[in-house]
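Obj: model holo form, ligand = zinc ion.
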Amino acid sequence: MRAGLAPGAWAALESHLIQAYPNEACGVLLGRAEAPFAVVEAHACANLNTERSRDRYLMDPADQIRVEKDARRRSLDVVGYYHSHPDHPAQASATDLELSWEQVLYIIVSVREGKVAERRAWFRPLGQKSFEEVALDAAL
Ligand SMILES: [Zn+2]
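Output (holo structure tokens):
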């Protein structure tokens, strides 16, 4: 499985995640939610988890609803979500799996010392309880 990302979407999500470092940050990916997945926009949402902000995130539901409503109005799909792993690999964690939905793209970016170190993406097919890795294409 593959997903393409527009350069503007990469730029937006990476600058957001770098700015939030050393805390975890998260956001919504918009585009086309059918294979081949295409992400054309990335929108930052607040991380409401303040107690464990370095290794957990709780996406602000108000931000999420605002982004998703705006997407519907513009005929864009919610393709998935992104978040950072500050000073940890971009491997999906047990918590990520536990909190994941099926058929949603999850982009995880490892940020080390304020710089992007690794980008990976994950997808849980219908009826499956584990992630499959998704190949990311830098540009559409
Ligand atoms: Zn994670």
